[in-house]
Write a structure and sequence with these properties.
23% of the residues lie in helices and 33% in strands. By secondary structure, the protein is α/β, with parallel strands linked by helices. The protein has a six-stranded antiparallel sheet with strand order 20-21-22-29-24-27, with no helix packed on it. A five-stranded mixed beta barrel has the order 6-9-7-8-12. A four-stranded mixed sheet has the order 14-16-18-19, with helices on one face. Helix 3 crosses helix 6, helix 3 packs across helix 7 and helix 6 crosses helix 7. It is globular.
Length: 476
């Protein structure tokens, strides 16, 4: 069995913490591990191959780094050049699995879900493996504990007498209104649609060829022209651009006669909003969830997350207050599904705060834009031991570097110099340069940029250790 982890979501309803460049699957929301790390760790105890991850090209280094932190080397990381929903993503995974394994079972899991009862999850997976081994295409239906209008539903059909607790699928239902959701839950015949699946790779391909052959053709062409580099598989950009967007449910599961639903009662949540996060986290005696420096007085049923500042609440109920390094969200919990409207508003204004955080992660470390103004910008830069930035130059800016801690090896033109703590250097405009960390501890520097244009696209890159010559947008 090969786990296929879908890591393509943007998590816009969890803004300002979740953003396009660093969405919720990479955040530590329910434990010290991130959601994608929890998804991988949840597989421990199952007889599975290394995970196959599918993600956006821009997220490849974050995925690789977070798996590395767990000591996990993936089977591969398939890189989608364009988001095309789950049906093409799973098709790419199935074709790749068939090329490298002997028609394995595929356990398809979103990277950003919470499952609190691992034992129940494992039991459901093992039951699904039995059904899938017999040719079924299995979806996991979450046992609903309340009416929920934010999820699609699956109505179960007839139970398979030969395999208890597996049911045919009577129908899939789009997100209902409140009354229909209440009726669904009261009937006991409907489950929340989890977006998790199990089937043999060949069975998914067979059904996709039957019901969505155009998607399969595009995916085959895209993989045939793919290039591999390290653990990354670069799906061909031009071929994949022709693929239409569709979900596994629409493309296959709603049409096949072999769909099976297995009820799963395992403390599942898609953590799709601040409300759903409040529901799964531990609360104090007044129903409050707090992280960071928070003082709550006469406040009830609030979620408050402080990153840099003290947040004090007084006499308020049912609020979400979330502070990031450059934005603050305040909303009622019952409006948290509408946070995507804030993201849309930021996009309309031309702001980048729905896309990137102030702290930006790179394969060599990260930088934090701590100050800026007309013709200057200040960054705090961390370079991991043994890593280095690209060999590059800038047309419009000069840079001043001050070493705060660690050791820096600096290339500036045809010279190299080694800098220790409290030492500094100057990189003139137009001079080819590079920053490296030759040491065994993190390198921290302060960079002061000055010039007429300070955009991240003002880079001419000559050498790069991370294959970023492929990127359409260049940065440090």
């Amino acid at each position: 069995m090969i786990p296929v982890i879908l890591s393509g979501g943007s998590g816009s309803r969890l803004w300002p913490q979740s953003r396009q460049a660093y969405p919720k699957q990479f955040l530590s929301l329910t434990s010290h591990n991130t959601l994608i790390q929890e998804t991988v760790q949840r597989l421990a105890g199952l007889d599975v191959f290394a995970p196959l991850v599918i993600c956006n090209e821009d997220h490849r280094f974050v995925v690789a780094e977070q798996l590395h932190q767990l000591g996990v080397r993936p089977d591969s990381i398939l890189l989608e050049p364009h988001g095309r929903n789950t049906a093409p993503a799973v098709a790419l995974a199935a074709l790749h699995a068939l090329a490298h394994h002997d028609d394995p079972l595929m356990l398809v899991l979103p990277a950003d879900h919470v499952i609190r009862d691992t034992a129940a999850f494992h039991a459901g997976v093992r039951l699904a493996a039995e059904a899938a081994s017999q040719g079924a295409l299995v979806t996991f239906g979450i046992v609903a504990d309340k009416p929920e209008t934010g999820y699609g539903y699956i109505r179960r059909g007839v139970e398979n007498p030969a395999l208890k607790n597996t049911f045919s699928v009577a129908r899939f239902v789009e997100k209902p209104d409140a009354q229909r959701a209440a009726d669904f839950v009261a009937s006991g015949e409907y489950y929340w649609n989890s977006g998790m699946f199990m089937f043999r790779a060949s069975r998914y391909i067979e059904e996709l060829e039957r019901f969505a052959p155009d998607i399969l053709t595009c995916c085959r062409d895209s993989l045939a022209r793919a290039q591999e580099e390290r653990d990354f598989v670069w799906v061909d950009r031009d071929a994949f651009a022709d693929c239409r967007s569709d979900s596994v449910d629409y493309a296959v599961m709603e049409k096949t006669d072999h769909a099976v639903v297995i009820p799963l009662d395992a403390g599942w949540s898609d953590v799709g909003s601040w409300q759903s996060l409040w529901e799964v986290l531990d609360k104090d005696a007044n129903g409050n969830v707090a992280s960071g420096e928070v003082l709550s007085i006469d406040s009830n049923n609030c979620l408050v997350s402080a990153e840099k500042s003290l947040i004090a609440t007084l006499g308020v109920d049912d609020l979400v207050i979330v502070e990031s390094d450059d934005a603050i969200l305040v909303t009622r919990r019952d409006r948290s599904q509408d946070v995507k409207a804030v993201v849309a508003g930021l996009e309309k204004q031309g702001s980048v705060r729905h896309q990137v955080h102030r702290k930006v992660f790179r394969p060599w470390g990260h930088y934090d834009a701590i100050d800026g103004g007309e013709r200057f910008q200040v960054k705090r830069i961390m370079v991991k031991p043994g890593e280095k930035l690209s060999l590059q130059k800038h047309h419009h800016r000069a840079e001043h570097w001050v070493v705060v801690s660690g050791t820096a090896l600096v290339t500036c033109g045809d010279k190299q110099l080694l800098l220790a703590e409290n030492q500094s250097t100057y990189i003139p405009l137009g001079v080819v340069h590079r920053l490296e960390n030759p040491g065994k501890v993190e390198l921290h520097i302060i960079e002061v940029q000055s010039g007429a244009y300070l955009g991240e696209d003002d880079i001419v890159r000559y050498e790069d250790s991370y294959g970023r010559h492929r990127d359409t947008v260049k940065d440090v």
